[in-house]
Amino acid sequence: MPQVLEFAQPELPVRATAEAPEVSVVVPVFNEFDNLGDLVDRIHAALAPTGRRFELIVVDDGSRDGSGALLTRLVAERPWLRPVLLVRNYGQSSALQAGFDRVRGRYVVTLDGDLQNDPLDIPAMIERLDTDPDVDMISGWRQQRQDKALSRRLPSVIANKLISTTTGVHLHDYGCALKAYRRDIIDRIRLYGELHRFIPSLARDAGARIAEVPVRHHARTRGVSKYGIDRTFRVILDLVLIVFFMRYRQRPLHAFGALGLWLATPGAAILGWMGLLKLFGHDIAGRPLLMAGVMLLLMGVQLIVAGLIGELLIRIYHEGRGRPQYHAQEPEAR
Prior knowledge:
By secondary structure, the chain is an alpha/beta fold.
């Protein structure tokens, strides 16, 4: 029985164009009714003068304020607009992935739908990708950030320092949604959970060469921000996942097995010592050290076994589905 994608409702009909677009702009939105009209017009005003063919994929993430209905009206006179309506709110990562699954352009640009990112920065980012072969991804840096609320600025500062230090991908502004990519980088990554915050790290893991450029930033004038101080704690949990993904995805035994050995070795030593005491006639029953040795040894063995199972699973994932464990480029002969 064919699998049915749960996350997306059937798309609105897409009018065919004579040629595929060169630039795909992906914007996830959630309850941004007041901003949608201006957002669509500003993106068109920024890209139309460049002469590049483009498409705008707006992913409505289950909005309840009529954003989806507004998109269906806007598409009537805009053949370059491609609305995608998710059946419920799945979160920003899933909304972005829904857009990435549908892009057709050579370059992919993302930005938020709250009008705080300026579409006028897009042409320069595309031009940089077009002329600089040493850059695969450009990440925006909101040098003059206009958010005044401490609940937005403080989590951002903490997250940027934490992510940069832990992943080794040093950026000033991980939270800036305005980014531009070569299409092949987007094709190599998949977003789950709330991993949209770590796209630069995922892109670097996929072989991307990343540049960071200053971009304009505007204060929100309409709608309500969806971010808060609690985001910092979610970032910490997601950071554990991304570090494991980047360092141990191809060798899970090194992660679980190393920890298992650290626990099993002292556990075995303790039990060996207890065994010697027993041989010399000492009563070891009821000793806390005996229980500690047993627990350490058991936990260590369990972790090593978990690592072995992980090794089997990663091989099944790559070999069973025919997916290589690497990304490569083969220059064309001239």
